[in-house]
Amino acid sequence: MYPHIPYLPVQFTEAEMLQRSRDFYGHMNRRRTVRNFSDRPVPKEIIENILRTASTAPSGAHKQPWTFCVVSDPAIKSQIREAAEAEERESYNGRMSEEWLRDLAPLGTDWQKPFLETAPWLIVVFKKAYEMEGGERRKCYYVSESVGIAAGFLLAAIHHAGLVSLTHTPSPMNFLQKILDRPDNERPFLLIPVGYPAEGATVPDLVRKPLEKIAVFYETNQIGLENG
């Protein structure tokens, strides 16, 4: 059992909380997926701090069932691009349904992924189906949920640092396990190029769904309580 220690919350006034929530939303609302990267170097320490932030995510039974493989070696990036494009070529030319292709068309994507070599860093997120401790297999819980939350923290930390990213999911992704020589208990989850945007980079002019389209509030009916 973990020892318990006092929790020391960060406290703000309601006015400060309101302003901070607005500011953070405004900041995160500027986050965009970028497909045109600069080859400008990004210091390794920045990436390390981003990964530390991702690792603060909650996880089932605190198993932290993730591994972040971070690639800057040009030869490995070239292998990853070659394998990813081979899978994407198959997807765009037969695996994807017509509906899927129609939905992707406004984004202007295709099977070619030059950003996998251009971006200074590739972060490959692996999820652990189970752990091996002392030669014994130990169960992990809520693996996809836990790793998904960590990936969200990761993307927010990348944006907060002033960098851009793209969540790439070539399917299938088993080639990443082979290229990066990962153990059998790890499965590729996301492939994320990280860096600066290329000069003149553009993004689709998207509009996010408004709050009333994504949230449903169930609040106490104060009037009904007072009358009752």
Task: Describe the protein's topology.
Blueprint: H1 14-28, H2 44-54, E1 66-71, H3 74-95, H4 98-104, H5 115-118, E2 121-128, E3 130-133, E4 136-139, H6 143-160, E5 164-165, H7 174-179, E6 186-195, H8 211-214, H9 222-227
Antiparallel strand pairs: 1-2, 2-6, 3-4, 5-6
Helix pairs in contact: 2-6
| Strand elements, count | 6
Count of all domains: 1
Low-confidence runs (pLDDT<50, min 5 residues)? none
CATH level 3 topology: NADH Oxidase
Beta-strand residue percentage:
5-15%
Spatial strand sequence of the major β-sheet:
1-2-6-5
Distance between the termini: 47 Å
> Would you tell me the overall average pLDDT?
94
- Structural class, please? alpha+beta
Overview of the structural elements:
The protein is of the alpha+beta class and 228 residues long. It has one domain (32-195): NADH Oxidase, CATH 3.40.109. It contains 9 helices and 6 strands; from the N terminus they run ααβαααβββαβαβαα. It has helices at residues 14-28, 44-54, 74-95, 98-104, 115-118, 143-160, 174-179, 211-214, 222-227, and strands spanning 66-71, 121-128, 130-133, 136-139, 164-165, 186-195. The strands form 2 sheets. Strands 1-2-6-5 form a 4-stranded antiparallel sheet. A hairpin with a 2-residue loop joins strand 3 and strand 4 (136-139). Helix 2 crosses helix 6 (143-160). The radius of gyration is 21 Å and the shape is globular. The relative contact order is 0.20. The model has no long low-confidence stretch (mean pLDDT 94).
